[in-house]
User: What shape does this take?
Amino acid sequence: MISPVWWGVYPNGTIYNRILQYDGDWDPSFLISFCYSNNIEIHPLVSNYYEDEFSGELISEIINNQTKISTFIQSLNSLLPMYNCTGINLDFEGIPSLDRSTFTSFLRRIRDEIDHKYLISIDVPAKTLDKKTGWSGAFDYSEIGQICDYVMILTYDYSWSSSNPGKIAPRTWVRNTLRFALKHIPKESIFCGIPLYGYNWPNNGNQAISGGYSYFNNLIEENDVNTKRYWNSKELHFGFTDSEGVQWYAVYPDSFTTNKKEQLINRYPISGYCYWYLGIGDPNYWVS
Assistant: This one.
């Protein structure tokens, strides 16, 4: 299946169509036709990414308001018949941990009030124990695994844009996450996330730049640097100093990284893997 980032949500709970914001510069008909011809299901992604960030406050206000929940579900029911959709992907991030039970109830109501012919997949933060605080605290794996058809575990961003430089998806962490998930979620529902992106961290206090394979290849050529590979995550890394004296440290995957992660995931009895995001990874992966 493919989950194009087509839908967002307004503070009143209305789902809006991001496609309309492209002012006619992008037409989804080719993607829809391609998927239909190749038996690829379309599960549009709807998220709480609003005004250039994931808004925990936005989703919290919606899931704690029955009127806004009703508006959200009404919007969902009107949009799902479009574009040959067969499901929906829910990508709600930064939810306050205090909303844990409220979020579970919100998911249950979505399942109850949309046609069961539509599959529901949800993106959840990776965790190795049932934390009830922090970024992953609102996600009750056991309850979510009973409500949603597919659970996409985001086994990446171990190091992230505002953290210290480091591995994005270390294998030990991925392994422990899958072991924990299999204790709480039906194995046939689990998909393990694979990052096709990397980060480039500056030492001046700014956030890292996220980029794809070609971005890092260009940096290597421009700065004439050599790469090394982490033993644990199999990710490539390198450092350099730019013309203004800022030191940078980059970590990113290539086809070897991705293949090794798939080999690791294949040891576990889950349904498969999912990627974030298509089009930016090492092109050699798709022919290897």
